Amino acid sequence: MKRKEKILEIALQMFNERGVSEVGVREIARALSISVGNLSYHFPKKEDIILALVNRLSSQNNQHYQHYHLQPASLNHFLQLLANIFSNQFDHRGILIGNAELKHIYSTIFDYQITLQKRVQGFELIYQNLQKANHLTLSEADLQHLISLTTLYARFWLHEAFIDHVSMSKNSLIEKYMKVWSYQLSIFATEEGKASLGEYWENVHE
Amino acid sequence: MKRKEKILEIALQMFNERGVSEVGVREIARALSISVGNLSYHFPKKEDIILALVNRLSSQNNQHYQHYHLQPASLNHFLQLLANIFSNQFDHRGILIGNAELKHIYSTIFDYQITLQKRVQGFELIYQNLQKANHLTLSEADLQHLISLTTLYARFWLHEAFIDHVSMSKNSLIEKYMKVWSYQLSIFATEEGKASLGEYWENVHE
DNA sequence: GTCTATATATGGATAGAC
DNA sequence: GTCTATCCATATATAGAC
Q: Which CATH class name applies to A1-44?
């Protein structure tokens, strides 16, 4: 089992550096000092490697969501959740960006439409609870708007970051994109909510 | 010259349907009823085809920007500009989505950082003029926020659309994503600005 | 589990005749 | 401009020794 994990680790590193389509199975095997045959024993197809990495990303994100819901709803905690997800996405950037096979892979793992629905419903629940906690003030239209923008932003900030700001560090990038979203949330935040956003940024800069 | 254009037209159509990486030069040649050698005569590398399509997209978008600036600044005209750009992007979706080579292509055509700067400055100018025209009320922070979100949204709505809503028609998709952005603009719009947004949607539904 | 070797397929790119 | 034929690289997949 150790070997499979090592393969995933090295493969992800190479995908991150050069992109999925630019990395061949021979190169992965060489980087691991094993043979192609051996690699094929563990992951018969290259897609199986990507699949395993996608699953890992997905399950890690789910853990972050679950952890969030154990806490009282607050914009501070919500930003922490986003930062964790952003960090996780960054670490898997190789398989999330410019990956033509990804769509096909998603359709093989699960019903993608259901995944999307769950994502939307997840943010809906979070925002509704933030409203109940008196951190946000949202009309129904505001809520739907925020959900639409959130689902897009939380997925594609990484694409822009990776294309436009290659030279920036992981932490700088996450901070940059978190600040934009924090600002967007502050538009709909109560005074209590704004204070909670402030708490997040105080903790970040310690 | 006729032949080159025909190649671009068919290639783009195939890229849109199946993605750049899934379409081979042999298939393009077959669809055109010419030989691979002949195709290579016009475009020595597959990348040259993509490059030509990227340039076409870029120059068409520039024309839309120029046309916008000939008109008085208004949110109505700005939405029209966005709709034109969205439409153009949709038509070139094959080369904009899931295209691992795109980043490399951009770096070969021009200094990409300068292109980015121009894009940001372009939106800055547009928003500043909309403020002068009394359609938007923006603090400096609002302005920067809106620019950040715009540059991201105007590029990646297409990715989300293509991944999540494959079955929707071009017009429905553009309307869906335009509505979200219209709502975002309305947050910062004056009464006059909101009326101008309303004008746009009246004309759309005629 | 791991190796070497090889079969098979497919993709991009090119050489040279017409 | 257009063709045919071929080269070269890479991916999957498998056989069989250790």
A: mainly alpha
Asked if the C-beta of B8 comes within 8 angstroms of chain A's C-beta atoms, the answer is no
- Domain residue extents for chain B: 1-44, 54-204
Chain B residue with the nearest C-alpha to that of A99: B98
CA of B16 to C1' of D11 (A): 24
A24 Cβ neighbours under 8 A, 6+ residues apart: none
Supply the CATH classification number for the domain B54-204.
1.10.357.10
Contacts of residue A148 in chain B, CB cutoff 8 Å? 180
Instruction: Indicate the SS3 state at residue A136.
Output: strand
Per-residue pLDDT of chain B (206 residues; tens, 9 = 90+): 689 999 999 999 999 999 999 999 999 999 999 999 999 999 999 999 999 999 999 999 999 999 999 999 999 999 999 999 999 999 999 999 877 777 777 777 767 888 889 999 999 999 999 999 999 999 999 999 999 999 999 999 999 998 888 889 999 999 999 999 999 999 999 999 999 999 999 998 77
Of B19, B141, B156, the CB nearest to A156: B156
Distance A10 CA to D15 C1' (A): 28
